[in-house]
Amino acid sequence: MKSSNSNQPTIVAILLFSSVCHFLPFCIGSPPVNEVENETPFTYTEGHKGPKEWGHINPHWHVCDNGKFQSPIDLLSERVHVIHSLGKLRKDYKPAPAVLQNRGHDVMVKWKGDAGKIIINGTSYKLIQCHWHSPSEHTFNGTRYDLELHMVHESSHKKLAVIAIVYKYGRRDSFLSQLFHDIKRSGNGIKEKNLGIVNPGDIKFGSRKYYRYMGSLTVPPCTEGVVWTILKKVRTVSRDQARALRDAVHDGFEANARPTQRLDERPVLMFTPRENGASA
Ligand SMILES: [Zn+2]
């Protein structure tokens, strides 16, 4: 792992500034884009509109194929720059009304009210929704885990920031326990279910250490300019909980993880509290 507190390459500096997109030509003027909703004409099975074909299925999805900032990636220790100045993740979540939506390719909790925000380099990104992939999409030194949660946030300029939490089989996850019965029922043709008030603060992070890099949505249209934050701590989920998520989605989407993409020259930063700071 490289420790580099000074003399960072320019591209590292870009990650530290607020309006990342102002520096990157590919996101200037790009329209607001969200993940494809509901039933989709893509799959995770190669040869049947699988990940290698996504870029050719729809002219708006070319970046899935020829993008240079695609996600997910393998988080390889020796490529990571430790940057204390990234700072602690600033989050300010609050309980808000939410619905459970089965999009066919995944299960999503969508907040209908103000569920709070995260702040990255001075920019606020409001929490919009969260959803799960199994197995995990990001890998740690080549290891793929059993589940990955994505918390999708959007700025007032429609830029996206996603927090990812990776899980392996073990003890139950308390947030999924709250949703378990609704997730099981969502497989029975009920597309949207009112959940009442859901507190995103109930999603356990468990660590202050995180990775940060610039990437994309991991489903078509694979839009780039997404600020990724991946928590370093691998948490646990029970097999029943992971199975409920897989059973809920449509046939063929039981495994809904995109293969890892080329990192090329992109830097991956890691925040870790200073020794005298704290316990993470
Ligand atoms: Zn996702």
From TrEMBL:
One of its GO terms (biological process) is one-carbon metabolic process. SMART domains: Carb_anhydrase. Residues 1-29 form the signal peptide. Keywords: Glycoprotein, Lyase, Metal-binding, Signal, Zinc. PROSITE patterns: ALPHA_CA_2. GO terms for cellular component: chloroplast stroma. It is found in: Plastid, Chloroplast stroma. Residues 40-272 form the Alpha-carbonic anhydrase domain. Its EC number is 4.2.1.1. It catalyses: hydrogencarbonate + H(+) = CO2 + H2O. Its cofactor is Zn(2+). CDD domains: alpha_CA_prokaryotic_like. SUPFAM superfamilies: Carbonic anhydrase (SSF51069). Its main location: plastid. One of its GO terms (molecular function) is zinc ion binding. Pfam families: Carb_anhydrase (PF00194). Belongs to the alpha-class carbonic anhydrase family. This is carbonic anhydrase. The lineage of its organism: Eukaryota, Viridiplantae, Streptophyta, Embryophyta, Tracheophyta.
